[in-house]
Amino acid sequence: MLGLNGTPFQPATLQLTGIPGMNTGQAWIALIFCFLYFISIAGNLSILALVIREPPLHQPMYYFLSMLSLNDLGVSLSTLPTVLATFCFNYRHVDFDACLVQMFFIHTFSFMESGILLAMSFDRFVAICDPLRYSTVLTNSRILAMGLGILAKSFTTLFPFPFLVKRLPFCKGNVLHHSYCLHPDLMKVACGDIHVNNIYGLFVVIFTYGVDSVFILLSYALILRAVLVIASHEQRLKALNTCISHICAVLAFYVPIIAVSMIHRFWKSAPAVVHVMMSNVYLFVPPMLNPIIYSVKTKEIRKGMLKVFHKSQT
Question: Can you tell me where the transmembrane regions are (predicted)?
Answer without folding.
Answer: 27-52, 73-92, 104-122, 143-165, 199-223, 244-267, 273-296
